[in-house]
Amino acid sequence: MTTSSRAFLDVDASLNGRRWVGPGIEVERQAEFMRQQTGLPMAVCQTLARRGVPPHEAQGFLEPQLRDLLPDPHKLKDMEAAAARFLQAVKQRQRIAIFADYDVDGGTSAALLIDWLRQMGRQATLYVPDRIDEGYGPNEAAMAALAADHDLIVCVDCGTLSHDPIAAAKGADVVVLDHHLGGETLPDAVAVVNPNRQDEDGELAHLCAAGVVFLMLVEANRQMRAEGAKGPDLMAMLDLVALGTVADVAPLIGVNRALVRQGLKVMARRARPGIVALSDVSRMEQAPNSYALGFMLGPRVNAGGRIGKADLGARLLSTDNVAEARAMAERLDELNTERRDIENAVRAAALEQAEDRGLDHPLVWAAGEGWHPGVVGIVASRLKEATNRPAIVIGFDGDIGKGSGRSVSGVDLGASIQKLAAEGLLIKGGGHKMAAGLTVARDKLDAAMERLSELLAKQGAGDAGPADLKLDGVLMPGAASIELIEQIEKAGPFGASAAAPRYVFPDVEIRFAKRVGESHLKINFTDGMGPRIDAICFGAFDTMLGERLLNHGGARFHLAGRLEINSWGGRQQVQLRLEDAAPASA
């Protein structure tokens, strides 16, 4: 906590009511030392220093090599057995089913296996449960039905806690490739590969399911090579791994960073029909980056599982038919628009309820009748972002509520939810550090939320000021160039556990301001010496920011946000994604 120190640029309350917090003296010293040692721009050094990179490792960090960072698949327990059973099914032409979760991580994981199998001349049955009718993970009826017609069932992004459903798969072998928190015992499967099993050392706990599946395919190819055979090109599949990693908000550290960096390069080749179609309906005109994966492609893939047909996202990602991909992408785009409308209604109601309860508790939560289970997770994300606290949002249907939660850095929500389930306060619950799902009886709701708040408080939830906005430093318009942004991007990709740097342009005047759409604001600004810079602020008119900057009256402001390259009509220009502002003179 830095609340006792002086606010950055003396901004104790911005136009959004936030206190600005600078990088700290130690980070600034390290950044300056790195600049002297490496000759890199100060903005790049600030980002590297914040991420704890020492000067002698700077160049290597800016060019991560997958071959240097990819772990030995054998580091994960049951990996050898999982790959061997998978290859046995391939060699013996056995019938394979893939049981996948309905989110992006599940869809990309399934697509990886389907793509690999297709290249080997094999097929698999895809099964994705309906979010509302079946809920998360394997269920007994579905597993029994799949087992009746298949020899091997591979559960991806689910299955670690599914003891009874896996036991119901009589007559078929089951392999689990997952990353959700494991319990004290594992289900009776041929293999349960999961970096978050209780008997793992946690070194690879940051992998999402797509990363685990990729490592299993690395091991499968290795076993094939040992027998003199050759497997498919795995490097060409990294676009799927990157999408799953970013969309599942997996920490962009270690091997995840290299997987996403390389995956973005693969994606830029536009070779996968599903991702090409999705990029086109998303109107993604620039080279893919982690923002596009998380906020343009990911939500559309998820839309099928949230409010449409559960397997639509996985089918889109795995198809090799261009026309089919285009049709599915258009349908997902429509569903995403519907999802946004539903989300906006639930978000307004949830925020009002949470505000009435108070936003300064360790846990922010809301529950409502008939709130769509497909959007409660997104709304929980919005509450978390607005308050800097773990958030839970629950939709009730009768006496049973299904909810979803999102956490903040350093607070393990999944473990706490699992503890609540073990204590009998939840019907069921599980997840990982940053996200979790739960089912709760109406008469236990208040007790469960009170207990969860207790558990999260012990981990430090609620310690950080909800209004703190962390900033990396000051930048002048004359220094903000395309070249600088490209160099900063090399310190990425940015996302979970690796936030993109946020800069302040101090004491600037707004030369142009226009409302765009329903609630967005477009401006350009200058300090009077450097060039004008365009800025876009999404949702500006949902806060005081929009009206104040639109009607600026010639006043000067400090503007805070993240730099990006805006590609339009074949031209590239610097753009600030504006997040906050403060009067330049109080």
From TrEMBL:
Pfam families: DHH (PF01368), DHHA1 (PF02272), RecJ_OB (PF17768). GO terms for biological process: DNA recombination; DNA repair. Keywords: Coiled coil, Exonuclease, Hydrolase, Nuclease. Gene3D superfamilies: 3.10.310.30, 3.90.1640.30. Residues 472-580 form the RecJ OB domain. Signal peptide: none annotated. Belongs to the RecJ family. This is Single-stranded-DNA-specific exonuclease RecJ. Residues 366-457 form the DHHA1 domain. Residues 95-245 form the DDH domain. It comes from Thalassovita mediterranea.
